[in-house]
Amino acid sequence: xxxxxxxxxxxxxxxxxxxxxxxxxxxxxxxxxxxxxxxxxxxxxxxxxxxxxxxxxxxxxxxxxxxxxxxxxxxxxxxxxxxxxxxxxxxxxxxxxxxxxxxxxxxxxxxxxxxxxxxxxxxxxxxxxxxxxxxxxxxxxxxxxxxxxxxxxxxxxxxxxxxxxxxxxxxxxxxxxxxxxxxxxxxxxxxxxxxxxxxxxxxxxxxxxxxxxxxxxxxxxxxxxxxxxxxxxxxxxxxxxxxxxxxxxxxxxxxxxxxxxxxxxxxxxxxxxxxxxxxxxxxxxxxxxxxxxxxxxxxxxxxxxxxxxxxxxxxxxxxxxxxxxxxxxxxxxxxxxxxxxxxxxxxxxxxxxxxxxxxxxxxxxxxxxxxxxxxxxxxx
Length: 380
Ligand code: KG4
Ligand code: ZN
Fold this sequence. Notes:
Blueprint: E1 2-7, E2 12-19, E3 25-35, H1 37-41, H2 48-67, E4 83-89, H3 93-110, E5 114-118, H4 119-128, E6 129-133, E7 136-139, E8 146-151, E9 156-163, E10 166-172, H5 178-188, H6 195-208, H7 236-255, H8 269-297, E11 302-306, H9 313-322, E12 328-330, H10 342-354, E13 359-360, H11 365-369
Parallel strand pairs: 1-4, 4-5, 8-11, 11-12
Antiparallel strand pairs: 1-2, 2-3, 3-7, 5-13, 6-7, 8-9, 9-10
Helix pairs in contact: 2-3, 4-10, 5-6, 5-7, 6-8, 7-8, 8-9
Bound molecules: 5'-O-[(R)-(carboxyoxy)(hydroxy)phosphoryl]adenosine and zinc ion.
Zinc ion (ZN) binds near residues 307, 308 and 339.
């Protein structure tokens, strides 16, 4: 089975070609990701219509590139896939539609089925990928029930998995997603989009340069909903607390007549690092506490984590601590934390084997009427 996977839910145009004969081991024949992050930086976040335009430009170019990949393909090898897996939600609808329409056209042209794939299922699968050989990925088996913690720019969810395709959301954010909070806090600190990696860097600086030893008591942030009995999260208040903290520190700087390289009363580099560190600590505490509670409540043996935010070093380290004799942790490799098409190809392929609901035949009315769904909730 050869799968062409397409992902355009946010600001990455991604395509992969995978091959599998058993649904356990996958050869990655070709893959490409065109990131639009730079384009959106000047707007401080993803602009849906700009993303759509970029995807439309990128899709044919990337397809051409992967179909003619000289490194991976023997000369004259005709690489027509047997299945197309495409993200149809959740995400930015104008962006999703570009990938979906492109995939529909290809399915018709090549006369092959298309499997509509959930982006979050892709992130779950990304945690299971293990590589012992270059460009070959094996799906690590999971003991169920399992908890999946999904942390991205649009999601913060705890999902109970009773089986590989049996999902129940048992906790989620009541306001902002955790990645969104990283991006907004970064913006407040004058850092470019996407903000997560920037905050990660400053927080690392804070630790490496032992700034903590010199930290005054003034940098403190709340841990929202840490003690609530449910499994929900809230990040909007934390973000607002950062806003007030920045204002307070700036006022103090002004009063102290502090002039630094940026300007009078601006935050010092050290203060920015302190805020990044403290904000990360607050996120780490809430995420780990609620995840640990979910594991205990549902007596799960496995924890899978997916989504762009799991690239964050302190979050990875803290979740690692949860691992023990009764719990196995599945973290994605760093190259699979962000959006990619490989995870979509594998999730889609598994889905096409497990059920027929989302596997749509070429020229069928079901394929014709398939719609992108920005609010899709794990195959519901
Ligand atoms: O999964 P993803 O690539 O796209 C969505 O499906 O949303 O996640 C993107 C999010 C962004 O908010 C980005 O700032 C965040 O992941 N992110 C990070 C890090 N790297 C990316 N957040 C914290 N620390 C990081 N190192
Ligand atoms: Zn994602």
